[in-house]
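F.,

This is the one I mentioned.
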């Protein structure tokens, strides 16, 4: 009997390796042949080591050239004609749009995951109208569309970009609760940590300004940054700006880490004042799983991980003063109340963000769509 064949694609191999490995391993364990598709990457071999076949797909994740996008659509079409997969699992904007369009043309059943809207979707102008139209064309005939927060799903349904009966919610990308286990921080309790790509839209400027304000009253507090410097994004923070913050003594920069757990362990609170159109931020979920209190902006995706006043605090987006107030409020909590927040975070991760929930959802949709 010929095994089922599934193509899974994102705009980077890093995305597949870090966020989709649970789904990939579950599919392989069930006897499915999985073909991972992404631009050439150092993660190609790790995906192969999981049991995948890897196919290179050149892709400019931030590009807006119509010519390049048509070329990408043709590359997907040619790939599906060659591989003849049973299902296509799409993640990130361009695979969701052009991969799904090609899948529909080739009779391949598409399952999409909308892990955030991206700035092009929300900004006004011709690009916004084009992206919305492309989403409508690409998602309307998909077998299923997963969303990572209710705000995104409601917006897509209201705009007629997806069908209610063919869509549902997932708890982000989920988290491996055994890998991200609770970790107690040290006794001094004054370390904050922000994990994100270093782009302004993640609220990093507000985080730095809030740190300046907090240090006036709590000079011993420390503020860590962990993430990729200089990503392919128009909102990227430059190295000179980062170095200025470090020289000023406002932040400590940990670079980019393959394993973020040791740095999370040392932190007392995970912070993400993002106003980027998130799905459900993985960094908050990982922090919750490791039993850390959380502080984040009150925006779609972030608010799904935080019960305000229970496992952390929500702050006003783009408001450094309000963020500073929430950071100070946390610092001045008694130790037992901080510990209770950490326990509440872990409990929330166990109840809502277990990776098994995501895996089971995919397996049900694929099983229902075999015929």
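My design for it:
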């Amino acid at each position: 009997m010929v095994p089922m064949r599934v193509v899974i694609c994102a705009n980077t191999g890093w995305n597949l390796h870090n966020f989709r490995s649970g789904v990939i391993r579950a599919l392989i364990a069930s006897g499915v042949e999985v073909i991972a598709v992404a631009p050439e990457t150092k993660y190609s071999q790790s995906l192969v080591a999981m049991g995948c076949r890897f196919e290179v797909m050149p892709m400019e994740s931030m590009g807006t050239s119509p010519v390049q996008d048509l070329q990408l659509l043709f590359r997907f079409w040619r790939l599906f004609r060659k591989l003849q997969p049973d299902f296509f699992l799409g993640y990130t904007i361009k695979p969701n749009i052009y991969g799904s369009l090609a899948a529909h043309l080739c009779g391949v059943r598409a399952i999409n995951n909308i892990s955030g809207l991206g700035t092009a979707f929300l900004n006004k102008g011709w690009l916004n109208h084009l992206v919305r139209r492309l989403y409508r064309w690409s998602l309307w005939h998909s077998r299923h569309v997963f969303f990572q927060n209710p705000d995104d799903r409601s917006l897509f349904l209201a705009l007629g970009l997806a069908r209610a009966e063919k869509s549902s919610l997932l708890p982000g990308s989920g988290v491996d609760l055994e890998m991200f286990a609770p970790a107690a921080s040290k006794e001094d309790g004054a370390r904050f940590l922000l994990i994100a790509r270093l782009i302004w839209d993640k609220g990093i400027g507000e985080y730095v300004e809030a740190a300046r304000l907090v240090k006036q009253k709590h000079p011993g507090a420390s503020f860590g940054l962990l993430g990729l410097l200089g990503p392919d994004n128009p909102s990227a923070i430059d190295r000179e700006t980062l170095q200025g913050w470090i020289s000023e003594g406002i932040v400590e920069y940990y670079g980019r880490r393959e394993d973020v757990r040791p740095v999370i362990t040392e932190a007392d609170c995970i912070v993400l004042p993002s106003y980027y159109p998130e799905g459900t931020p993985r960094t908050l979920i990982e922090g919750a799983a490791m039993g850390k209190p959380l502080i984040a902006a009150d925006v779609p995706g972030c608010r799904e991980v935080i019960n305000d006043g229970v496992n952390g605090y929500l702050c006003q987006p783009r408001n450094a003063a309000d963020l500073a107030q929430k950071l100070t409020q946390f610092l001045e909590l008694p130790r037992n109340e901080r510990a209770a927040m950490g326990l509440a975070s872990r409990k929330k991760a166990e109840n809502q963000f277990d990776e098994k929930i995501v895996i089971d959802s995919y397996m049900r949709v694929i099983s229902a769509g075999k015929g």
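The CA atoms of residues 18 and 258 lie 9 Å apart.

Talk soon.
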